[in-house]
Amino acid sequence: MKIFVNLMVLWFLATPALAGQTLTPIPGNVMAPDFTLQDTNGKTHRLSDYRGRPVIINFWTTWCPPCREELPSMNRAWHLIEEEGIAMLAINMGEDEDTIFIFSADYPTDFPVLMDQSGEVIEQWPVKGLPTTYVIAPDGTIAYRAIGSREWDAAALLDVIRQLKEQRQESD
Amino acid sequence: MFGYLTHVCLCKRTFGVLFLLLFMPMLCAAELQRSVNEENGLEKWHFIDSDIEIELVQRLPDQTRALFMNHAFSREVIEQLALSCMFQTIIRNTGKSGAGQTVSIDLTQWRMQHAGKTSGILQKEPLLASWSDEDADAAARLVVRWGMFPTQQEYLPGDYNWGLTAYGIPPGSTFDLAVTWREGEVQRSGEIRDIVCAPDVDRLK
Predict the structure, then answer these.
(1) Helix/strand/coil for A54
(2) Cβ contact, residue pair B95, A15, below 8 Å
(3) Is B110 left (phi over 0), alpha (psi -120 to 50) or beta?
(4) In this complex, do A128 and B143 lie within 8 Å of one another by their Cβ atoms?
């Protein structure tokens, strides 16, 4: 009886916490659509150039409240993973450099912010709403997806992404 | 003997009470909370049932005007959108049941009741199709395309989305909303009653 009660209490405590900070695995080795986009500093990024590393790709806009909500934790996460060979690219949808520049005064980001002004890139991805974030495996397949904001510096999320890197090292 | 029976009864009773305490939330009907943001006076309807949470937050017509005036929409389209009773909407799969089920929504199945009539809610696809290039340029269309709630979407536990839903009735109107969704293979439904569209700015106290 005591074990039953303890198990139920644990289940009740754990379920909402786990539900909040999860990444959804994407089955079937779906290749991430390649893109070439400029960041706000004028540097060109091609997704396929990141092959061999896990890549976090976040689709966002300045006028989307949950996008704004998760940006600080993404920046903190970036400082944790930058030296670990994990890339992070935020793709802004539909806005120009000036809008993003003004916005960045309140929400500074140290990782590359790419501009998809025409919305052509986002249309090639299975995005339904913003923010949506994908984690790309080192082999270029989509490994995980997150719809809605997350606390990206949570160890539970980063460890899942780090494991992708370890898988790569094992296959080498 | 009596001691043993009492012990068995207490155990059964304790188990029963625990069972009810633990599983009542799942057996109970939906929960609906209505609240007011004291800072801005806007009302929120928060519907909770099984694995789904739906939040509808009033949006002032002026807030909508401000969003769309930053983009190349015609004056007429901005007013059309501003006066269409928009709500900031959040739908979430809480995963509370622990079953790891997908929650699927299809806004074309939602029904609203207003002034004695039942109808669907506004969808972004017909809106976008109704505008000429003068009404909205390509960049402006992107704001509606991505700012309004996806018409169909699936959420795994922990997923949530934010967007605008619109109901096409005047500011200050009251309506009931019948919502439907799927949890795994089970079709579910609920009702959010007495939702009030935000008033236009001239009616604010």
Answers:
(1) coil
(2) yes
(3) beta
(4) no
ipTM of the complex: 0.74
Tell whether A118 lies on the interface with B, counting CB pairs under 8 A.
yes
- C-alpha distance from A112 to closest chain B C-alpha (Å): 22
Nearest-CA distance from A99 to chain B in Å?
Answer: 11
Interface check for B18 against chain A (CB to CB < 8 A): the answer is yes
Task: Return the residue of A nearest to B161 by Cα.
Answer: A148
Interface contact B146-A21, CB threshold 8 A: no
In a mutational test of the B interface, the residue from A128, A145, A151 whose CB has the highest number of chain B CBs within 10 Å is A128
Q: Name the residue among B51, B75, B55, B59 with its Cα closest to residue B154.
A: B51
Average pLDDT over residues A137-152: 95
Tokens of A129: 């709403």
Angstrom distance (rounded) from CA B109 to CA B188: 12
Contact B62, B201 (CB under 8 A): yes
Q: Tell me the chain B residues in contact with residue A64 when contact means C-beta distances shorter than 8 Å.
A: 146-147, 162
Tens of pLDDT, residue by residue, chain B (205 residues)? 444 444 544 455 555 555 555 555 445 578 999 999 999 999 999 999 999 999 999 999 999 999 899 888 999 999 999 999 999 999 999 999 899 899 999 999 999 999 999 999 999 999 999 999 999 999 899 999 999 999 999 999 989 898 999 999 999 999 999 999 999 999 999 999 999 999 997 644 4
